[in-house]
Design brief:
The N and C termini lie far apart (75 Å). The longest helix has 9 residues. The chain is elongated and about 80 Å long. By secondary structure, it is mostly beta strands.
């Protein structure tokens, strides 16, 4: 069974990616129609018995039309394997994962031969987290993150339909009354004020301009240089207790 939730889809089907043929672009072949089980947009399709019982994540797509009649074609984001390992989650739970910036946030990766964006956030108090952005019409119901509990981290892989990079995204976190849109922690790029969205970016494509500062850093006498203190209570650093 192939199940997916697309609130903006009026009809959908499962299409099988044809084998690569040199010099020819073959259209995907329809495998099965998806039945809308709920009017909100919950679909289910039965994978034919003559096909593979466990199709590869990148071997099929979801095709259909929106309520306005526009066609769409996307990969099934929940068919792809988990990126974060149990060891990653264990170290994060202990607070000893020193490379969390490589795991959390938004990362452009290639998974099962398909390029997309992997989102991950540490949210121990959240019951549900969704990725919203330009790629899904800011619909919190379209791309909910898979919840890993314990230790409560949300993660989701959004395939190439996200048009990554440079996708404007946020996280939708339901509160007591309404859902809140929050910027993605450990983001690598942000919109310029007054906009507050997170922008998917790649660190390996960033050009740094701090070569002169790095060269001068080794020559600086830090013990005789001024420091800038921000939000530090100096009284808590007292080494000798005050005597009455």
């Amino acid at each position: 069974m192939v199940r997916f939730f697309l609130s903006w889809a009026a009809e959908a089907c499962i299409s099988l990616k044809p084998p690569a043929v040199k010099g020819a672009a073959l259209p995907p072949a329809k495998v099965a129609d998806a039945v809308k089980l709920r009017p909100e947009g919950f679909f289910e399709a039965t994978w034919p018995s003559q096909q593979s019982a466990a199709p590869a994540p990148g071997s099929y797509k979801i095709q259909g039309r929106t309520h306005s009649g526009d066609p769409f074609e996307i990969f099934d984001p929940y068919a792809f394997p988990i990126v974060l390992s149990e060891f990653d989650l264990y170290l994060m739970g202990e607070g000893r994962h020193y490379d969390t910036y490589e795991k959390l946030g938004a990362h452009v990766i290639t998974l099962e031969g398909v390029q997309g964006v992997h989102f991950a956030v540490w949210a121990p108090s959240a019951k549900r987290v969704s990725v919203v952005g330009d790629f899904n019409g800011w619909d919190a119901a379209s791309t909910p993150c898979a919840l890993e509990a314990p230790p409560a981290s949300g993660k989701s892989f959004c395939p190439s339909s996200t048009k990554a990079p440079s996708t404007n995204t946020k996280l939708s976190v339901p509160a007591a009354i309404l859902s809140l849109l929050k910027r993605i922690p450990m983001l690598f790029r942000s919109e310029l004020r007054p906009n507050t969205g997170s922008v998917v970016a790649r660190l390996d494509h960033h050009k740094w301009n701090d070569a002169d500062w790095l060269a001068s850093r080794a020559q600086k006498n830090w013990f005789e240089s001024a420091i800038s203190v921000y939000e530090v209570h100096l009284g808590s650093w007292r080494r000798v207790p005050r005597r009455s």
